[in-house]
Amino acid sequence: MEVLVADKCGFCFGVELAIERAEKMLQEGKTVYCLGDLIHNKVVVQRLTQDGLRVVNSLEEIPAPAGGSNASEPVPTVLIRSHGCRPELIEAIGRRGLHLADATCVLVKRAQKLVRKLHQEGYRVIVIGDPDHPEVQGLVGYAPDVRVVARQSDLENLPEASRWAVISQTTHSSEDFARLVGLIAERDFQELKVVNTICRETTRRQKSAVALCRQVQVMFVIGSHRSANTRELAQICRRQGVQTYHLQSWQEFLPRFVEGKSIAGVTAGASTPSSIIQEFVDNLRRI
Q: CA 148 to CA 138: how far, in whole Å?
């Protein structure tokens, strides 16, 4: 089996920095809690938990630091994952006397600041993205009544406003962002401001995947099913008309996926380790 790998795939710099930050604190012996998975990759998360990272679902699950000058237990550190969070959570961490380590991706930080700034300038803010994604759930906390648009039908629920501002989830599809912005532009308004907050690495990965689709008979997109950017990659590949499989690792591969095929393409999401990509490619080439 001939296997071609996308020029751009695998870990992005935001994911790498978040993992490095967690590893450094654990090596220093700190008690580190993370609200939800640090990144959307169970292999990486399992490795970090084995090294001591404690994953919880809420702040209430983290024990409050012992008071008094004789307290011997170290104050727990709360690690904000790369997707970011709502500002109220940051405030709550401080009130509880916990240490804060913010691993929010710098591009997500930019989007958060933009939501607040645009609201202060008098715009009603729209975020194009997945309302269930942790990044989007964090973004909507930076201004009152931020609206999330995931699909065309969501536009029907938008209230009337004279001034709209539109940004995007950083891992969203550029093609889908442009399509929905075009539909918003058809509405009745006086002013529309659009800021493209899609990560350039995300866009490069998408363009690389599209180029690869033209050279292969079947595409494999490797990464967690919970990863938004990986799901977008798979959808983009399918739209090119090539048979596409979104798999988390080689363990999900079935021989029937390549029956009658001689050239396969491989790409991967931004939270997929190079070791998982290489294992998949090596095994596929042996067929």
A: 12
Domain of residue 25, residue span: 13-104
Angle formed at CA 129 by CA 121 and CA 123, multiple of 5 degrees: 15
**At 17, which CATH number?**
3.40.50.11270
Concatenating the DSSP letter of every residue in 220-250 gives EEES-TT-HHHHHHHHHHHHTTSEEEEESSG
Cβ 240 vs Cβ 210: under 8 Å: yes
CATH code, domain with 214: 3.40.1010.20
Q: How many domains, the chain?
A: 3
Q: How far is CA 231 from CA 118, 221, 227, 228, 285, in A?
A: 29, 8, 6, 5, 24
Q: Which of 2, 61, 135, 156 is catalytic?
A: 135
182 and 232: one domain?
no
Whether residue 135 lies in the annotated active site: yes
211: left (phi over 0), alpha (psi -120 to 50) or beta: alpha
Pick from 148, 137, 122: which is nearest to 84 by CA?
A: 137
DSSP reduced 3-state for 19: helix
Where among 65, 81, 104 does a domain terminate?
Answer: 104
In the listed set 183, 198, 213, which residue is the last one of a domain according to the structure?
Answer: 198
How is residue 98 annotated by DSSP? -
**Predicted confidence (pLDDT) per residue in 143-187, tens digit:** 999 999 999 999 998 888 889 999 999 989 888 999 999 999 998
* pLDDT (tens digit per residue) in 179-220: 999 999 998 889 999 999 999 888 899 999 999 999 999 999
